[in-house]
Amino acid sequence: MTTTYRMLAIDLDDTLLNGKLQISQRNKEYIRRAKEAGVHVTLATGRMYCSALPYAQELNINLPLITYQGALVKEAGSGEVLLHRPVPLELAREAMAWVKKLGYHINLYMDDKLYVEKMTPEAETYMRISGITAHPVGDLVAFMQEAPTKVLFVGEVRELDQLELAMRQHFASSLHICKSKPHFLEISHPEATKGHALDTLARRSGLTAEQVIAIGDAPNDLEMIEYAGLGAVMGNASPEVKEKANYVASSNEEDGVAQVIAKFIFQE
């Protein structure tokens, strides 16, 4: 095997995970082979660290995990925090007060815990997807006394599209604002992106962007797809994400991750 790629960063939802939120045996096998061939493999997800960790353990990944879209990079083995870029507190308060008036559900993330105002259908759905318990605490703006790692808003697709545009105009470069799913709009530190975090990990391993493969499917994967020497996306990715990719693989239901590894690391 001769490959120029020495690091592989893989998104979880709708990329590595299938519709049952599971990793297929074929994807597992190719990730194992890549690791045995000396490729650094990590996960790059919008999920909380505690939500991503079980998947890392399933894959025997001991490298730092890129979580919260790049706001928190933390070792899977030791739990050491390598990077934490929280949302500036006053900006988080302003954005949350804005969205509270609109009546959308808000997820607040601090200290790798999920806080909500009250239990709602949106909170219950999110708990089911993430495997994490939500803590209802009443008024989130009043509760929040420290800079949060991330804030997520849940709403209808078109309404969130309009809110995303309005927030980008208002906050400009002082916040990173993007969608991770059609119904999820997220705000984070302006440098809390998967691309920035992946660059940090690559440099730490003495690698250049050209030696990195990033695999994703959603708008919150764009920065790492554009950063990596090879940016690959799933066949189920949205058209605007596919446009930025170097390679479009099969869907997450058809082991697209394994296909990318087979083609570009093992030349199969």
From TrEMBL:
It holds the Pfam family Hydrolase_3. Signal peptide: none annotated. GO terms for molecular function: magnesium ion binding; phosphatase activity. It comes from the Bacteria. InterPro entries: Cof, HAD-like_sf, HAD-SF_hydro_IIB, HAD_sf. GO terms for cellular component: cytosol. PROSITE patterns: COF_2 (PS01229). Gene3D superfamilies: 3.30.1240.10, HAD superfamily/HAD-like. NCBIfam families: Cof-subfamily, HAD-SF-IIB. PANTHER family: HAD SUPERFAMILY HYDROLASE-LIKE, TYPE 3, PHOSPHOSERINE PHOSPHATASE. This is Uncharacterized protein. The lineage of its organism: Bacteria, Bacillati, Bacillota, Clostridia, Eubacteriales.
